[in-house]
């Protein structure tokens, strides 16, 4: 279990590039699995090397996603708090379904993008108007940030609701980080040594700020 972060807006062309890389990986796996050879055979090992390279190439293309284990996210929040990158902000109250003319059952389905066995199409713009309004209210709650944020709302890096971290929050958090590390470069060296994913996380934050922010999904 862990935390999955996804960019709000994928970089142009990335989906197509990932699909192409995935096909190459699948072809390499199919070739490997079709070999009637033992695992330690030189030809099998050579093909396995190609599979590994194809997988690495596929993962390198996908910049929309970032993953941290539950433990690493706990460390991440502690480090970000130390660097002044997080702020304590109370989220908006969850909208009441009844206020939008829908039932609690329909509300549970509203955020989903495919409704199995449900008699009404709830996907995208085909959803009933009241469901679309409720879905919009949910998104406003999940993405709300102060007009001039001073960092990322701490609650957005926890839970399974899909909180949206906005570009404004990210820029403020990165500014606080740059200020903090400039005053204590020795601490940064310790951070990188103990949390080897930290430089990639900072790069991901910069990347996300250019693509609408990111959404967080973690354990309930």
UniProtKB/TrEMBL annotation:
Taxonomic superkingdom: Bacteria
Protein name: Uncharacterized protein
Lineage, broadest ranks: Bacteria, Bacillati, Actinomycetota, Actinomycetes, Kitasatosporales
